[in-house]
Amino acid sequence: MLNIPKGKKIILFDGVCNLCDSAVQTIIKHDKKDVFRFVALQSDLGQKIIKHLGIDTQKTDSIILYQPGFAYYYKSEAALEIAKDLGGVFYFASLFSILPTSFSNHIYDYIAKNRYKWYGKKEACLIPTKELQAKFLD
After folding, report:
1. 88-117 confidence digits (pLDDT tens)
2. Which pairs count as long-range contacts for 29-34, CB under 8 Å and 24+ apart, including other chains?
3. In what order do the strands lie in the sheet with 36-40?
4. Rounded to the nearest 10 degrees, how much is the dihedral formed by the CA atoms of 89, 112, 131, 73?
5. How many CA within 13 A on the CB side of residue 83?
6. In degrees rounded to 5, what are phi and psi of residue 37?
7. Among 75, 82, 84, 62, which residue's Cα sits nearest to residue 106?
8. ∠ Cα 47 48 52 (to 5°)
9. Nearest 5°: phi and psi at 125?
10. What is the distance between the alpha carbons of residues 24 and 76, in angstroms, rounded to a whole number?
């Protein structure tokens, strides 16, 4: 995977979801340590990463956190791992990791299932501004 930067955590997100877009913008704003890079699930690279990891897209279609050479997380585990890295007030969200994964994934799945209905959907994936292009992989 040639386009994967060393030492960065990759967030694969639903590029047409308004909720996911807001989450990405929030992560970028609070990623003071420049930990994360982003790639839309719908992109060629997103699909290559999913295939490389062997992830069944029937199990998740909204967020995956990939730490190259180490691990990957999806659903609520991904969200909680991201919160840990953001620190500050977001670190308190990571306290939910004490809940059983099946329970937190159930809540996550409910939100994911309704995200288009509640927040809407774009016709195309987010196109980052010039200032943010370095944070997005293609």
Report:
1. 888 787 777 888 889 988 988 899 889 989
2. 30/86, 30/88, 30/90, 31/85, 31/86, 32/87, 33/85
3. 36-40, 9-13, 63-67, 71-74
4. 70
5. 15
6. -125, 155
7. 75
8. 120
9. -70, 155
10. 15
Long-range interactions of 55-64: CB distance < 8 A, separation 24+: 61/14, 61/112, 62/13, 62/14, 62/17, 62/20, 62/112, 62/115, 63/11, 63/12, 63/13, 63/14, 63/20, 63/23, 64/11, 64/12
pLDDT at 82: 94
End-to-end CA distance of the chain: 11
d(CA 96, CA 27): 18
Calpha distance 110→105 (Å, rounded):
8
* Amino acid identity at 101: T
